[in-house]
Every structure is written in structure tokens, then in C-alpha cells.
Amino acid sequence: MPHDDSPLISHAAARATPLEGGRLSALMKRHGSMELRWYAPSGTDPQVPHDQDEVYVVASGHGWFVRGDQRVRFTAGDALFVPAGQTHRFEEFSPDFATWVVFYGPRGGETASASG
């Protein structure tokens, strides 16, 4: 796995990291339950719901994000949250679209709290 010891994971390094067999995103860092990945689909977004909560931080590009029955416009710098098991996808995104994705917590997702 790349970048195990460095506190910095650059945009350039992410773009250069190859995908693992069968995965749509490149693994950049793993720590406990957390995985940091780089996702840059081409044309369409074929992903399915995941078994952990996730946060996307859009690195470049723009488009639409669909989560369940919600559809929101996004651009570079925006963050998007998806609870475990929720249907979601990126639509009508620009050719330069790429995002960091952080998977974290237990399988099945974190429990919502009153303070959250």
C-alpha cells in the first residue's frame, strides 16, 4: 500500500496510483477501520452501496450527486456524506472529476447520536 509512513498524500500521487483488481478506487491509506481512497470514474459511476459510512471530498470537477431520493450539485472543495448501505452515485460529472473518499467505522455504519 502506498504512502504508509508519510502524513502527506498528494493529489499527484493519488492520480498515479493504480486500481486494485476488482476495485473502482485506489487505496491510499488504511488506519484501523478507516480507508482513504481516490475515486475518478470515467463516463458513468457504477458504484453500489457500501457497508461502511463514507465521506467524499471533491478534489476536482463538478456534477450532480444522488443519495437516495436527494440530488445535489457539487463542485471541487465540497464534501458529501453517505451512511452505510445508502444507494448513491455521481451523475453528469465533468471529465476532470475526481474525489477523495474516506470509509470509516464499523460494518453497518455508525449510530446516529443526538449530538451529531
Unreliable residue stretches: none
Biggest sheet strand line-up = 1-2-8-3-6
Helix and strand composition category: mainly beta
Query: What would you call the shape?
Result: globular
Distance between the termini: 32 Å
In total, the number of strands is 8
The helix content is: under 10%
Rg over C-alpha atoms, rounded to the nearest angstrom: 14 Å
How are the secondary structure elements laid out?
Blueprint: H1 11-16, E1 25-31, E2 34-39, E3 53-60, E4 62-67, E5 70-75, E6 79-82, E7 88-91, E8 98-104
Antiparallel strand pairs: 1-2, 2-8, 3-6, 3-8, 4-5, 4-7
Protein model, in words:
By secondary structure, the protein is mainly β. It contains one helix and eight strands; from the N terminus they run αββββββββ. Helix content is 5%, strand content 41%. Strands 1-2-8-3-6 form a five-stranded antiparallel sheet.
Key structural traits:
116 residues, mainly beta, five-stranded antiparallel β-sheet, 1 helix, 8 strands, globular
Kindly summarize this structure in a few lines:
With 116 residues, the protein is mostly beta strands. It has one helix at residues 11-16; strands spanning 25-31, 34-39, 53-60, 62-67, 70-75, 79-82, 88-91, 98-104. A hairpin with a 2-residue loop joins strand 1 (25-31) and strand 2.
